[in-house]
Amino acid sequence: MCPCQNGDSIPNDPSQMVPVDLSEKPKVNGINGHSNHAQPSAQPQPQPRHNPYAPRASDFLNNVSNFKIIESTLREGEQFANAFFDTKTKIAIAKALDAFGVEYLELTSPAASEQSRLDCEAICKLGLKSKILTHIRCHMDDARIAVETGVDGVDVVIGTSSFLREFSHGKDMAYITKTAIEVINFVKSKGIEVRFSTEDSFRSDLVDLLSIYQTVDKIGVNRVGIADTVGCANPRQVYDLIRTLRSVVSCDIEVHLHNDTGMAIANAYCALEAGATHIDTSVLGIGERVGITPLGGLVACLYAANPEYVKSKYNLPMLREIENLVAEAVEVNVPFMNPITGYCAFTHKAGIHAKAILNNPSTYEILKPEDFGLTRYVSIGHRLTGWNAVKSRVEQLGLKLTDEQVKDATAKIKELADVRTQSMDDVDSLLRVYHSGIQSGELEVGQREALDRLLRKHREERHTEGVTA
Ligand SMILES: [Zn+2]
Predict the structure, then answer these.
(1) According to the model, what pLDDT value does residue 15 have?
(2) Contact status, residue 26 vs residue 356, Cβ threshold 8 Å
(3) Is 366:304 a contact under the CB 8 Å cutoff?
(4) Of 256, 278, 348, 353, catalytic
């Protein structure tokens, strides 16, 4: 729902906006656009543009176009305050994420509860393409339960920050290292993947961190994980830590980034730039407190860097369905400013933007709505509107008006919208009345009083129809 009701608000309902035809080829302004200038015989073709967001060739560690997603809605997401997923919901979410194409699904530890263990087994039996992981404490008891569920891998975690060592499990680094080796060797002996992660990595001692990661890398762990458990890290810190870690281990590197300061997507991007290989996400970012890197936001960010790569890996038009599924399950709305699926993500309002969008959408769009199965809209019934957007609507309605007439009608729309935002129906009525006035000879450009009279007459007729109907 749109919470804003002021005069300049964008209508929430797409039926109140002009959908912009996606099949239209980009027009070059003044050539194939809205100009009355004489057309040159050879029309220049738009050149493919350089993508400034793409990784540079010199960034040899950069994995922005070579990464895997570990989707943790069914583990981290279960820690969201509102979340309770029954078996049926878990299976629906798992299947949807698998169809979307995420490489891994991470599930709650089977040691957490009997139902968690049964659900883990049920999801393993679905035969999904995504590999199934479960997330456990660095403890042999948990590891023994996990490997019996049929998972493809086990994510092991232990706290290494002074806070966790002092106030949580109370273990020293020697004990942590010894247990880690034991658990990793056990999981490996079962022939499945194993990841070792510290918790609260950014507030852990760097020497301790690098030393334990080097140790587990030597015994053949598949991935090491860095976790910004409290969401305190900034992109530069993430880059520096991953870059340092990349130089001391040869295994894959996973990052788990909380969003307490709104940095989770930026931090994930920087982690990939520094050589990380796997990013943890959850749908809508749900998780402990304000959650982690959101799947949709991360996809938007990586699509901007390399659209073809992201399109080749993931079924992007499924994103909205998956977000709605999870939003409903945890009883929240998709946020209005959500990348890609926020209700105004592809709605253009200002007249100057609308004009450029109608000529070539890339002018004001870095994401193509059609790649996500969505539609772009131009909002026109407001005081910031422009005649190019109104002209587009005139054409959609099949009305014949000259540019001068469209500009005249636009001036009237702006005048009315200065009092209140005009609905699509209001705008369409005005354009139809204007058009029939021109056709019948009752109206000419600039005859404001004649237009007002025709509009009044139209309103009265409508009112009478409403009363007699
Ligand atoms: Zn977390």
Answers:
(1) 65
(2) no
(3) yes
(4) 353
CB neighbours of residue 29 within 10 Å: 14
The rounded Å distance from CA 251 to ligand 1 centre is 22
> What's the confidence (pLDDT) of residue 10?
47
| Two structure tokens written together for 66 | 């070579």
Q: What structural domains does the chain harbor?
A: 68-329 (3.20.20.70), 346-468 (1.10.238)
Report CA(42)–ligand 1 centroid distance (Å).
58
Residue 469 confidence (pLDDT)? 54
Ranges of beta strands (E only) in 77-144 are 104-107, 131-137
Q: What's the chain's Rg over C-alpha atoms?
A: 28
**Residue 141 contacts by C-beta under 8 Å, 6 or more apart in sequence?**
111
- Residues contacting 150, CB < 8 A, separation 6+: 121, 124, 125, 132
Distance from residue 172's CA to the centre of ligand 1 (Å): 22
- Going from the Cα of 258 to the center of ligand 1, the distance in angstroms, rounded, reads 6
Question: Residues with Cβ < 8 Å from 23, sequence gap 6 or more?
Answer: none
Q: How far apart are the first and last CA of the chain?
A: 32
Residue with tokens 């999801």: 123
353 has catalytic annotation:
yes
Residue 287 C-alpha to ligand 1 middle, in angstroms?
7
The answer to whether 55 and 65 have CB atoms below 8 angstroms apart is yes
- How many residues can be counted in the chain? 469
Residues of the chain whose pLDDT is less than 70? 1-15, 21-49, 55-58, 164-165, 169, 466-469
Cα atoms in the Cβ-side hemisphere of radius 13 Å centred on 213:
29
Joined tokens for residue 297: 């936001």
pLDDT of residue 5: 39
What is the pTM assigned to this prediction? 0.84
pLDDT of residue 316: 98
Pairing of strands 377-378, 18-19: antiparallel
288 alpha carbon to ligand 1 midpoint, in Å?
Answer: 6
